[in-house]
Automatic annotation (TrEMBL):
It comes from Eumeta variegata (Bagworm moth). Belongs to the helicase family. Its cofactor is Mg(2+). Residues 56-253 form the DNA helicase Pif1-like DEAD-box helicase domain. This is ATP-dependent DNA helicase. It catalyses: ATP + H2O = ADP + phosphate + H(+). Keywords: ATP-binding, DNA damage, DNA recombination, DNA repair, Helicase, Hydrolase, Nucleotide-binding. One of its GO terms (biological process) is telomere maintenance.
Length: 257
């Protein structure tokens, strides 16, 4: 875990230097290793949500409208296609602002907490009001620089987890550059188990955010690099559609007005 502590320190420094958008709220995690309790998602007031909607630039609004339209189609036809987007952009292009706005819109469309949000490290998770990937999905922690096999959930624990994920329609993953490809494969397998659905990612919509030019994984291959021993199987990264934000924005003042 020392590698992750070092990465947390690096990420904190990186956010201080390049991220332009402050948080709506900074939930404090007393113990980020607690696995049973999920951190609540951050909510906006109606006034805040109206303000951020008005602050969306052309690129952000196009994505916002696309996702809203997809939700409406999915609500009418549950067998429809699910979204898999990789939302990227350089510093100041509003990735965090976009994530929070989309999360709020998804939850409002479904009238429930339909989004789960996570990132690899505790610092990254706190910055978006989410959980760590390991805690949220009960994935194995690396030991001796290697990731162990993913244990299957069973019995009452599996029933509890499936109940927690019952209403989940979207998974948002931030700082995707830090996630190794091998973990993306595990995320697919775990979602299939939690949603009791063998189709890709358990038929959950997945939006991943980040900049692949930023921090790479501590161990393992980058999220877009399929290991040779997995060649011939599904290339999970190629399932995602690229959405690039290019307009430099300064939107944190809108949230706090």
């Amino acid at each position: 875990m020392d590698a992750y502590l070092i990465r947390d320190q690096q990420l904190t420094a990186a956010f201080n230097q390049v991220h332009a958008f402050e948080l709506l709220q900074d939930p404090i995690v007393e113990n980020e290793d607690v696995e049973e309790a999920e951190m609540p998602e951050t909510d906006m007031t109606n006034e805040q949500f109206q303000a951020v909607q008005q602050a969306l630039n052309v690129e952000q609004r196009e994505l916002y409208n696309t996702i809203t339209a997809s939700i409406q189609r999915q609500q009418q036809d549950e067998s429809g296609a699910k979204l898999r987007y990789f939302i990227t952009g350089g510093a100041g292009t509003g990735k965090s602002f976009t994530l929070k706005t989309l999360r709020e819109q998804v939850n409002r469309c479904y009238g429930k907490k339909a989004v789960k949000t996570c990132a690899l490290t505790g610092v990254a998770a706190r910055l978006i009001g989410g959980n760590t990937i390991h805690s949220l999905l009960k994935l194995p922690v690396e030991k001796d620089n290697r990731m162990g096999p993913m244990p299957l959930l069973t019995g009452n624990y599996l029933r509890v987890m499936r109940n927690q994920w019952r209403d989940t329609e979207f998974l948002f993953i931030d700082e995707i550059s830090m996630v190794p490809y091998e973990m993306l494969v595990m995320i697919n397998s775990r979602l299939q188990q939690l949603k009791n659905n063998d189709r890709l990612f358990g038929r959950i919509n997945i939006l991943v955010f980040g900049d692949l030019m930023q921090l790479p994984p501590v161990h393992g291959r980058q999220v877009f690099e399929q290991p040779p021993h997995m060649a011939g199987g599904t290339h999970f990264w190629q399932l995602f559609t690229l959405v690039e934000l290019t307009q430099n924005m300064r939107q944190q003042e809108i949230i706090h007005s």
